[in-house]
Amino acid sequence: MTNYAHDSIVRVAFEFMADIVITTVAKVSEYIIGPVIREGKYFLCVGKIIRDIENERNELIFKRDNLLDRVEQAKQRTEIIEKPVEKWLHDVQSLLEEVEELEQRMRANTSCFRGELPAWRRYRIRRKMVKKVEALGKLRCKSDIQPFSHYAPLPGIQYQSSENFTYFQSTKAAYNQLLELLNDDCIYMIGVYGMGGCGKTTLVTEVGKKAQESNMFDKVISITVSQTQNIRDIQGKMADMLNLKLKEESEEGRAQRLWLSLKENKRVLVIVDDLWKEFNLMNIGIHIDNVNKGAWKILVTTRNQQVCTSMDCQTNIHLELLSKDESWTLFQKHAKITDKFSKSMDGVPRELCDKCKGLPLAIVTMASCLKGKHKSEWDVALHKMRNSSAFDDHDEGVRDALSFLELRYKYLHNKEAELLSLLCSMFPEDCNISIDDLILYAIGLGVGGRSPLKLSRSLVQVGINKLLESCFLMPAKDIQCVKMHDLVREVVI
Question: Is-contact 203 192, C-beta < 8 A?
């Protein structure tokens, strides 16, 4: 090998080794000098660290407050906030508390910036501050959470009041029997029948609420069919309870959409209230087949036992009228009277109660109307009841109830209330009647005369309150509406 070739090899080897050394030194610098410089900042850039943590904290608080405003607005729209949003807010609160605690430690050790604390303690505090700056920034960047919220499902049967439900012996027996049947997987169609106004709706509502509270069913749906059988309206109410938007135009398409939604639930209870004749449940989207039979239950209420038979109910429960003692207990509750008061009135309250023949609707209506009234009004009411024969074509119990309702209608002593009751009777049976519509119609028919609009509205509202107090109207599920019991509607018509 010549000297020239030898020198070339040595030079190439030297350059190769030099590249290795330079690369190694660069890497060493990256892993050693970089961290040294970064760690040095904890001692040399105290002012910048304090400014950074203050800025990041303020920006995060701004984001949090905006998000809290959105949360409040969503709740006012009855929306439920998504879990990631709640978690982000919780994380923000925790981090801000940690930053506040760190700042308190800083303020408690003001001498740490003058170098009086040990170096290792100054280093640890400032290092934590830098990490908090990074954490504040990362959390701030995650504030745009989607989806943010969703509409809360309607409470359904839980919304209905329990104030008129009393556990008498007759109702308690039916209540317990219904709960037993709902737990029986061999039973899927149950019928409850009884006289109009005997408390069927109240009973099955309480059973449904109990079943929902005890998680017997994934979903409890209550629908009112009545004589009109408005399929589209019933489907709309079902969709509301399922938190579902129906886009289909045909009743059949809407029924199929409801069926698909119901199938998402393993156990379902459907209360079909106030059924007057045979009704095909598939028309509204309810279908019992071999898959859901037993897990799904249908609970039907009707005045006629034959309807239970036509609906193929496997078990029928007859809701009896109240006994005399039960009637008197219910009457006293709503009239706010005692046995002593009745005796002081020569037994008139007790006799009026007996005239109701154990029908809860008549008892509640009569007691509520006469509550707090003078003895003369009690005497007149009894006289009218003894001599009334306006509804002789009805069964005795219903006839007496209707006779009393007619009597109370004539003694409303409020022309606005009388007009409003007539207006309400013109709406379909079991209809939710808008209070705003009633006010509009009443004013249009002359209530208030030439009085200012505000006064006219007040007069109409007083009439509505009078009817509610007298049980001629009932509160509806929608707080902006009222309803009229079908027996009351029959009397008014």
Answer: yes
